[in-house]
Prior knowledge:
- It is built from 6 helices and no strands.
- By secondary structure, the protein is an all-alpha fold.
Amino acid sequence: xxRYYPESCGIVxxxxxGLASGLSTQAGLVSWYxxxxxxxxxxxxxxxxxxxxVLYVMIGIAAGRLWRVRHAFPTIWRLxxxxxxxxxxxTPLFFGLQRxxxxxxxxxxxxxxxxxxxxxxxxxxxxxxxxxPYFLWVSFAAYLNVSLYVLNTSx
Length: 155
């Protein structure tokens, strides 16, 4: 167990922060979100919980692996932490404040930080493999966020 301690801590931290972020915005999820016009590829609500749970486990494993090499690769470690901030900020911006526009800007920065992270992280392909599915989901989330903005904003 001690061998996987950083990964275990990363998993628990990501799951707890994701749960806290989601629970803090339940009101917007229940009352406001259902009233929005959804894009054609919008998954049913029950998909998001399991997908994010799996992704948070994967992100937590990547966090543990990066924690081990944080002194050798401080820029990558800081970039990883920065993208986590933007990840956990999205839910309160979107559901809590009901600001599709600010959530979209947040998501753009998150997506760009993941592109840079995946590009710079050459020391461990394992981290790449743990983070890449998250990047794909964030890319899909960007499509959803842009679509929700376009469909629900009067220009």
